[in-house]
Specification:
Layout: H1 53-58, E1 66-71, E2 74-75, E3 79-82, E4 85-87, H2 89-100, E5 104-109, H3 115-120, E6 126-127, H4 135-138, E7 141-143, E8 148-157, E9 172-176, H5 180-185, E10 192-196, H6 199-207, E11 213-217, H7 218-226, E12 231-233, E13 239-243, E14 246-248, H8 252-267, H9 270-278
Parallel strand pairs: 1-5, 1-6, 9-10, 9-11
Antiparallel strand pairs: 2-3, 3-4, 6-14, 7-14, 8-11, 8-12, 8-13
Helix pairs in contact: 2-8, 2-9
Length: about 280
């Protein structure tokens, strides 16, 4: 679940598919292109340092007309990898918003708890990652109008003594770092919270008997459980929340434009058609 706060889940350990938005995947830093054979790096003038090409590339600003979206692409069906492309509800919705703004969407994958810092540092324009509006997050960023509602659920092993929310007291609960599951789990009396960089890591720990339960968004939860034996989702909902787009506090102009785009995309049925594409009726 993503409050203090969807492809390929469960990585190698749980087959290829996602997240929880959601094995640890480290970002691979952009590498400077290797010099062609026979080429030499330009020599520095006396008293000057040679240019740092890699640093220059890393600090290069996005092309004008590009809307940079920060996400954590392990949260199927909201954002996840299909080959080397990030797809999902959030990816398509953000692309539709960018089109409305006359811009091209660029998606940057990172750890979930790095998204807000990326927005505030100017490395990203928006954060779209199954992110819930919370009071703590509102201290650092603004949020658009909600674009969908999600439910947080509890995953346990089949045969677990945990049958509902009240049974979590004193148990070891797995969550994805920085998500709303992380935040809400803190309110469970006597619980030990184990935090993972990706939701799939928490579910793998549950499957291995390391933890007692996992709190996460319902749609990724269904994806995880369908790919793992011996796990189930409890009938009782843990909490219901709304997802929105995070935008820097000082970018009121972008916030207004995004809200206008979301209103139009909701009115013409685009957002619902995207959701229906990834979440089918059971």
């Amino acid at each position: 679940m993503k409050k203090k706060m969807v492809s390929m889940m469960l990585c190698a350990a749980m087959t290829a598919a996602m997240v929880a938005g959601c094995g640890n995947r480290e970002e691979t830093p952009a590498e400077a292109p290797a010099a062609e054979a026979g080429e030499e790096t330009p020599a520095a003038e006396d008293g000057e340092e040679a240019p740092a090409e890699a640093d220059a590339e890393e600090s290069e600003a996005p092309a004008e007309g590009t809307l940079v979206m920060a996400t954590n692409a392990y949260f199927e069906p909201y954002e996840y990898y299909e080959g080397d492309q990030i797809v999902g509800i959030d990816a398509e919705m953000a692309a539709a918003v960018a089109e409305k703004l006359g811009m091209e969407l660029q998606i940057e994958d990172m750890e979930f708890d790095s998204i807000i810092p990326a927005i505030n540092s100017g490395k990203a324009d928006i954060g779209v990652a199954g992110m819930t509006v919370t009071e703590d997050r509102l201290v650092n960023v603004n949020f658009s109008d909600p674009y969908t509602t999600a439910t947080q659920v509890i995953i346990v092993q089949e045969g677990s003594e945990i049958a509902g929310n009240d049974d979590l007291a004193g148990k070891t609960i797995g969550v994805q770092l920085g998500t709303t599951g992380d935040i809400f789990a803190e309110d469970v009396e006597g619980a030990t919270i184990e935090r993972y960089n990706k939701g799939m890591d928490a579910v793998q720990a549950l499957a291995n008997g390391i933890i007692d339960a996992v709190i996460i968004d319902n749609e990724p939860a269904k994806q995880f459980v369908s790919k793992a034996e011996g796990l189930k989702i409890l009938d009782e909902e843990f909490v219901t929340e709304e997802y929105a787009i995070a935008i820097a506090k000082d970018n009121e102009e972008l916030l207004e434009k995004v809200n206008t785009a979301l209103e139009e995309l909701t009115a013409d049925g685009t957002i619902q058609s995207i959701i229906d594409k990834y979440i089918t009726a059971e």
